[in-house]
Amino acid sequence: METPMTEWNNDRLDELNGRMKEGFTEVDKRLEKIDGRFDRIEGEMKEGFEKGDRGMKEGFARVEKQFARADDRFATREELGEATVELRRLNDRFDRFLFIFLGACVGLVGSLLVAAFSLVLQS
Q1: What CA–CA distance (Å, rounded) separates 19 from 59?
Q2: What pLDDT, on the 0 to 100 scale, is given for residue 123?
Q3: Which residues, in sequence order, are CB contacts of 56 under 8 Å at separation 6+?
Q4: What is the secondary structure of 1-38 as a DSSP string?
Q5: Torsion, CA 17, CA 20, CA 25, CA 30, rounded to 10
Q6: Residue 5 has what pLDDT?
Q7: What is the C-alpha separation between 56 and 41, in angstroms, rounded?
Q8: Residue 67: exposed, middle, or buried by beta-carbon count in 10 A (0-12, 13-18, 19+)?
Q9: With contact defined as beta carbons under 8 Å apart, do 56 and 48 qualify?
Q10: Which of 79, 75, 49 is nearest to 63 (CA)?
Q11: What is the pLDDT of residue 107?
Q12: Residue 39 and residue 33: Cα distance in Å, rounded?
């Protein structure tokens, strides 16, 4: 295990710079391989589609059907907007109900207090 460096000199920095360049060169080589694979696959797909490869066309048709089904399962912006309006109306109705309920509770408690106070005064 290397001991941590406490001081960096020019030779050490040059060595680090060289290792970094080597690492990036390896990454570039890997990316070139990946690009080559994508180009090959893209070429095969185009070639198969141009030839009229039935399996490929059926595969694309299946993918399009799955996207259509996914579109049907998710709400549109208009539908979300309508749901938001309905939720606001429901919230307003609930607020009114809560206000009436609290008013009734305050009235009931007030009536009980007046009745209790009048019983105390009669005794």
Answers
A1: 46
A2: 74
A3: 45, 48, 49
A4: -PPPPSS--HHHHHHHHHHHHHHHHHHHHHHHHHHHHH
A5: 180
A6: 62
A7: 13
A8: exposed
A9: yes
A10: 49
A11: 96
A12: 10
* CA distances to 59, 101, 123 from 114, in Å: 80, 20, 14
For residues 24-57, one letter each, b for 16 or more C-beta atoms within 10 angstroms of the residue's C-beta and e for the rest, the string is eeeeeeeeeeeeeeeeeeeeeeeeeeeeeeeebe
Residue by residue, pLDDT tens for the chain (123 residues) are 566 666 778 888 888 888 999 988 999 899 999 988 888 888 777 776 666 666 666 777 777 888 877 777 777 788 888 889 999 999 999 999 999 999 999 999 999 999 999 999 887
Q: Which two tokens stand for residue 27?
A: 């990454």
The full length of the chain comes to 123
In 10 A of CB 59, how many CB atoms? 14
- pTM across the whole model: 0.38
Number of helices and strands in the chain (H, E): 3, 0
**And the tokens for 93?**
């109705």
